Structure formats: structure tokens, C-alpha cells
Here is the input.
Amino acid sequence: MYKCIDGTLWRHIWIVGDLHGCHPQLMQALRERRFDPYQDLLICVGDLIDRGPQSLQCLGLLHKRWFKTVRGNHEQMAIDALRYGDMAMWQRNGGRWFAELDHAEQQRALAALHSCAALPYILEVRCDSGINVIAHADYPAEEYQWDKAVDGESVLWRRDRLNQLLSGKGGKIAGADHFWFGHTPLKQRYDAYNLHYIDTGAVFGGALTLVQVQ
Here is the structure.
């Protein structure tokens, strides 16, 4: 469930919100920031696929040395659809792109989606800005601890904490300096205490948010 990244191995580290097939927007954003794939690292908060036009290209990022991601609920829907043979829920939530691929593309997509079953739910990154924890929707505890048992479904789906923060309630999560989440499309990045929500709805015409943490 957990994976740790040593930030000292990289020059700059960026965190990006949900991609959802928005590959051209990502490449443009990296060019604008003079991202160097030989020295820099990009970490995604999950949901590489679905809804956007280039899900297959976003899956191709999994093979890049300079790219890491946590598992998103859309990756999990794809994993479950392929594992159990029931495509309905995935297709209803943006997975129709898979059926529209030709045979060779489908084989590439299948290989990448099967590899998503090995993606961590939680990344811990120790870098210049401190201990950064990346998860898709939430870290479902009041204090972070490495390898602590937490509910995986809540990590992928839960919005309760964000809803509380938006209504003026809630507080920080102890145990780390920063927590980075996606999952819920917002008009702009939302920060409260040490919690940061950076899915700004790129697939719906919003901005693609990238944050430099080192």
C-alpha cells in the first residue's frame, strides 16, 4: 500500500493533479517549466485514465523513469473490470475509450492496466519541503504513519474530509508536513492547513495544476 521516494535523487520534484487522458496539456506544462527528464521527477495523484482523449498515452507514462503515480479510483475501476469481466461501471465512468482502441492498442493498454495493480495507494516523498504524502482522495486517519493500516477504498474514494474543510470544519493531519490529493474536480487549487487538493478539472476544461515541492 505504501511506497517511499528519496527526494535527494532528483533535482526538482513536481506533483500534478488528475490527468484523465490530458496528455498534450501535461507535455505543454512540462515544457513551460523546463522539466528535465534526466534530473526531475513528476508525481501524479492518480486517475491517469478515462474521460479524456489520450488515456493510452497517459498509461505510457508508467514506463518513464521520471514519472511516478499513486493508484486512483479510475485505475481501480479498470483493474476490477478486467479482473472480474464486468465492464459496465468502468464504461459508465469514462472507460469507453478502451473499447474504441484497435487490437494492438488494446494489448498495450491491457499490459499497462495490469501493471496498475502494483501501484501504491500512498507515496511518501522526503524532499526539501519536508515529508510529503500523496494519495488519491484522502488519507483516512488523523495521523500519518508509515505502513499504517488504512482502508484502501477510502484512500481512493472518500470526500468527507474535503467536504468538512469546505464547510469551515476539520483540521490538519499530523505526522507529515504536506498531504496532496486529487479526485474531486475544483475550480482552483484548495489548501487548508497542511492539506492540498490539486484536481482542477483539466479534462473538463479547467487548468492542469502542477506544484513544485523541490
Notes: The chain has a mean pLDDT of 97. The beta strands are 2-6, 13-16, 41-44, 67-69, 122-127, 130-135, 178-181, 190-192, 195-197, 210-212.
